[in-house]
Amino acid sequence: MNFLIDANVPRRLVNTFLERGHNAVHTLDLPKGNLTPDLELLDYADAENCVIVTKDSDFSTSFWLSNQPEKLPLISTGNVSNKELESLFVTNFPQIITDLTDNRFIELTREHVVVHA
């Protein structure tokens, strides 16, 4: 699976995906870096078949209203340290991948991975 890690998510999370056999790129690696507008991120995700990993609720609005991006894991942990966020991904990684394989929109909270139908 291909992932695009949004600007509001730590870049080192890319390694979590790469180490588990998935492709991942952070917005910092794009030509406009973290200044890449959301619409361009959506276009990039479509063109490269990427799942956008984000904390930005604007993407959930786009998902419901415009059917973009194709798949979305929304991080809704509130304020957590980068280390804690990385730990949540590592702990829940198999569940996240399984849920994204079978569903289009999931949410990662501090306690659960929630599937939105």
SSE inventory with pairings:
Elements: E1 2-5, H1 13-18, E2 23-26, H2 38-48, E3 50-53, H3 57-66, E4 72-75, H4 82-102, E5 105-108, E6 113-116
Parallel strand pairs: 1-2, 1-3, 4-5
Antiparallel strand pairs: 5-6
Give your account of this protein's structure.
The protein is an alpha/beta fold and 117 residues long. The chain has one domain (2-116). 41% of the residues lie in helices and 21% in strands. The chain has 4 helices and 6 strands; from the N terminus they run βαβαβαβαββ. The chain has a 3-stranded parallel sheet with strand order 2-1-3. A 3-stranded mixed sheet has the order 4-5-6.
- The secondary-structure class comes to alpha/beta
Low-confidence stretches: none
State the order of secondary-structure elements, H for helix, E for strand. EHEHEHEHEE
Strand content: 15-25%
Cα(first) to Cα(last) distance is 20 Å
Any key phrases for this structure?
3-stranded mixed β-sheet, single chain, 3-stranded parallel β-sheet, globular, alpha/beta, 41% helix, 6 strands, 4 helices, 117 residues
Summarize the entry for a quick read.
The chain is α/β, with parallel strands linked by helices and 117 residues long. Helices cover 41% and strands 21% of the residues.
